């Protein structure tokens, strides 16, 4: 087993996750089996209880793990299905150590960060690295370990110490340390400044880790002079200094690393498979798209695109497949509530398609309901995801069935006419990890419908879930009689998973989150449907 350990310096937001996944693409293109572990030094057990405002989207795995959004990057770039243990947090590692202490495993010893926590971190990495993540059942050849945060943070210190020790545990020749840093460009001539990188490498070396490779984020490609200077001051080979400068789309990142000789540094032949040449085609195809398709995203965190990262990626995958340049018009749901002449309304009216993504809580709900009504009444393509399915159903109950106070018990626990209700099996006291989570089957209830055709005609689809509320089963018959058909349900045949509206070009809602399984080159079917319909192309 080989390890690529990726750390970050200077500041956050340098695209460490994308860099690490891109290195994975190169390894994969050399025919190697790759897996990844993301370390998040926060004390939360998982990302499930964290607000998208603070930390971006909560990514959901097949096994129901609620994890950091970087795992989404790995799944998409490397076409993996990771498990919850591929995201290591301080919450998880300390619980494990404390449980072991209570059991008496360390009897007689003082339990300490070194060696007990650092050993537990190393054991975790070794155990999880072995698990197959590509569906082959074979153990991976390489594990990419990405350490979240920035070197120098107090909370990441135990991990850096564990990783320092790890190089001796598994052999220095089996580990490549990659440090991702920033090279700012200053002054009228655009001088590339190396000092921040010099400082962060010094800090890393002070902790006992010597980086083998530097990846420097900058606006322009690094000059040879900058590379030489960094090599001299940071104790790396100048051939091992890479630049990740601004590119038109992120699919260029693996290509740009390859062009600068990253595969030579790793000692691999990236042309062993077609992966990199397919990747090249996709990156250039995306650059050349001209005809725009406008999708209105009606949400709650619209000024923070990380909050909907997988939805954006899925729209992008689908847009490439239908040959359109994607333009997302962000609409803050509460802005629609105000007045019909607002900018929000004009964006909505000019969009080719409307998407209402998942969400929690009642802020902006009436705006989302209005967006669904607008799309339904004006034959505008609509995709509702999770909460987006729920609000469209509430709208339908109010304005078609005439149940004017229809709502969800999430917004009004004492609602007289709930169209959406709390699921019976869900905990009312614990918020962490207690939703209906992870991969669950949806069984099509009809032999033929648009969604089923989009999924290639299969009778059942497995998609990932994250919700506490569901469509009120008592209303299903009435809703269906009026034309909103629940064409997909769970194994019990009672819980609604997919709806389709009759006599509408494309009005689909899904209780699950299809965005977590979309891949570049293999767009998620509901997104593909939305993009086909929104660009005036024929649906299957
Ligand atoms: N808040 C809703 C529920 O819990 C929708 C969840 C979501 O959109 N992920 O059911």
How would you describe what is shown here?
The structure is a single chain. The radius of gyration is 25 Å and the shape is globular. The longest helix is centred in the N-terminal third of the chain and has 17 residues, at 113-129. Strands 13-12-14-15-23-22-21-18-19 form a nine-stranded mixed β-sheet, with helices on both faces. Strands 5-2-6-1-7-10-11 form a seven-stranded parallel β-sheet, with helices on both faces. The protein is α/β, with parallel strands linked by helices and 540 residues long. Bound molecules: glutamine.
Task: Label this structure with key terms.
540 residues, alpha/beta, binds glutamine
Biggest β-sheet: strands ordered side by side in the sheet? 13-12-14-15-23-22-21-18-19
Beta strands, count: 23
* Ligands bound, unique: glutamine
Tally of separate helices: 19
Gyration radius (Cα, Å) is 25 Å
**What percent of residues are in strands?**
15-25%
How would you classify the helix and strand content by structural class? alpha/beta
Question: Would you identify the regions where 5 or more consecutive residues have pLDDT less than 50?
Answer: none
Largest sheet, in brief, is: 9 strands, mixed
The percent range for helix content is 25-40%
Question: What is the overall silhouette?
Answer: globular
N- to C-terminal separation?
44 Å
User: Mean pLDDT score, rounded?
Assistant: 94
């Amino acid at each position: 087993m080989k390890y690529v350990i990726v750390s970050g310096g200077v500041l956050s937001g340098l695209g460490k996750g994308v860099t690490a996944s891109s290195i994975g693409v190169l390894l994969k293109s050399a025919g190697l089996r790759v897996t990844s572990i993301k370390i998040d030094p926060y004390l939360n057990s998982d990302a499930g209880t964290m607000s998208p405002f603070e930390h971006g989207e909560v990514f959901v795995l097949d096994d129901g793990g609620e994890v950091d959004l970087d795992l989404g990057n790995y799944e998409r770039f490397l076409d993996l299905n990771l498990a919850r243990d591929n995201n290591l947090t301080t919450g998880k590692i300390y619980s494990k150590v404390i449980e072991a202490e209570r059991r008496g495993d360390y009897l007689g010893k003082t339990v300490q960060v070194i060696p007990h926590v650092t050993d537990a971190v190393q054991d975790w990495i070794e155990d999880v690295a072995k698990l197959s993540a590509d569906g082959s059942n074979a153990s991976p050849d390489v594990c990419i370990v990405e350490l979240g945060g920035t070197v120098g943070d107090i909370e990441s210190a135990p991990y850096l110490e564990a990783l320092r020790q790890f190089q001796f545990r598994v052999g220095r020749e089996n580990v490549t340390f990659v440090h991702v840093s920033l090279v700012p460009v200053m002054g009228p001539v655009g001088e590339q400044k190396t000092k921040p990188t010099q400082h962060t490498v010094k800090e890393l070396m002070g902790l006992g880790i010597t980086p083998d490779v530097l990846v420097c984020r900058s606006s322009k490609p690094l000059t040879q002079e900058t590379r030489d200077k960094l090599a001299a001051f940071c104790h790396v080979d100048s051939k091992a200094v890479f630049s990740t400068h601004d590119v038109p789309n992120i699919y260029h990142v693996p290509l740009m690393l390859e062009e600068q000789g990253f595969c030579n540094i790793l000692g691999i032949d990236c042309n062993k498979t077609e992966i990199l040449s397919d990747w090249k085609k996709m990156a250039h195809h995306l650059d050349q798209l001209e005809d725009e398709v406008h999708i209105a995203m009606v949400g709650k965190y619209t000024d923070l695109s990380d909050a909907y990262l997988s939805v954006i990626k899925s729209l992008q995958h689908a847009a490439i497949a239908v040959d359109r340049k994607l333009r997302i018009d962000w609409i803050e749901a509460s802005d629609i509530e105000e007045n019909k002449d607002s900018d929000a309304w004009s964006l909505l009216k000019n969009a080719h398609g409307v998407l209402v993504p998942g969400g929690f809580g009642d802020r902006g709900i009436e705006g989302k309901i209005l967006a669904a009504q607008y799309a339904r009444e004006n034959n505008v393509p609509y995709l509702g995801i999770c909460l987006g399915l729920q609000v469209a159903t509430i709208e339908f109950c109010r304005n078609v069935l005439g149940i004017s106070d229809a709502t969800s018990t999430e917004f009004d626990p004492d609602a007289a006419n709930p169209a959406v209700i709390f699921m019976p099996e869900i905990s009312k006291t614990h918020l962490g990890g207690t939703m209906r989570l992870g991969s669950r089957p949806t069984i099509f209830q009809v032999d033929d419908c648009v969604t089923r055709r989009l999924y290639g005609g299969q009778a059942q689809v497995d998609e990932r879930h994250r919700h506490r509320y569901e469509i009120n089963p008592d209303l299903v018959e009435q809703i269906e009689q009026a034309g909103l058909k629940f064409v997909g349900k769970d194994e019990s045949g009672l819980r609604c998973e997919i709806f389709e509206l009759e006599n509408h070009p494309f009005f689909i809602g899904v209780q699950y989150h299809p965005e977590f399984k979309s891949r570049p080159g293999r767009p998620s079917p509901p997104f593909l449907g939305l993009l086909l319909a929104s660009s005036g192309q024929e649906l299957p």
